[in-house]
Amino acid sequence: MAAALVGCERGTSTGGGPAAPGPTAGCPAVLAGAQAAVQRAMKTNPAWHGPTRGPRAVPGKSMVYVAQTMTNPGVAGAANGVREAAKALGWNVRVIDGQGTPAGIQAAFSQALALRPSGIVIGGFDPKLTSQQVAKANARRIPLVGWHAVDSPGPSKDPELFSNITTRVQDVAKISADWVIAHSHGHAGVVVFTDASIPFARNKSELIKKGLATCDGVRLLAEENIPIPDTSSRTPQQVSSLLSRFRGRWTYSVAINDVYFADAAPALRAAGKKGAGAPFNIGAGDGDPSAFQRINSRAFQAATVPEPLSQQGWQILDEFNRAFSGEPPSGYVAPVHISTGANSGGATAWDPPGYRAAYLSIWGT
Known about the structure:
By secondary structure, this protein is of the alpha/beta class.
């Protein structure tokens, strides 16, 4: 049976529901692979596979973290990790909030340059927004490290970044699709929520759809294109429309950011849906505290693929320390993780073990 998984624009659908379970339905081989991948990603005590060697701490450095907006839980979580690591290194850190607007971010970056810091963190925004300031930093040989600044982890030549800290979008998208396949035993009717105005988000949702398409028993019912700034105003209405159109055929959702489910919950509740029932929702986003709260209380979100925000903050400063020491970037990319009510332990963030001791040992602090 060919997979009837077609990208749908908002307001359209494939029209097909989940395949009826049967001896020839579904995707046994894909299901087995998805189940194994999910089992690995749900481990809560993984071994540390990040760096264990590197330069000793360079003393007396001052850092500026230019934040896209500190109301973004991912940006704020990484900033908190930077602050914690800076304390261990004996460095000074200042966070400047860009307030979520191009003008605000440009002003924040200009303020950072005026402070003449040792290094600048690009916290969660596209460096193209601040191309003039990036060029000035490069000219002054101020190293730049990004957090979710460009699509891929590691060094970047255009824009010139010593390193960019993020999980791989391919891995996040695949494990999100794997979770749907595994949790549904290969039989699901799925809605994907995305923001097509952001190339990174659009790419992520395309990869999610490709992952879902590997299983014949999975149907994409609709792809909802809702810009993240509009989620609170548009998501409830769209969820009500989806429930009316698909009724019981809608059994799973994947969103490029957990925020969609914060805004979907009231509409699902109003429709009489149970918080622990279908549609089962997974966020392929940062894993913010509110997502964990919904997951832990079984309130219209079943899982998230969280970033290890504090660990990434520590890694940011380790990368700077390597830059100051004339060494190359570490090359470390954190593996994907899935948090559910079964493995979160009531936590409101994913904080893997091992990294603090490893970095303190490297730095000699």
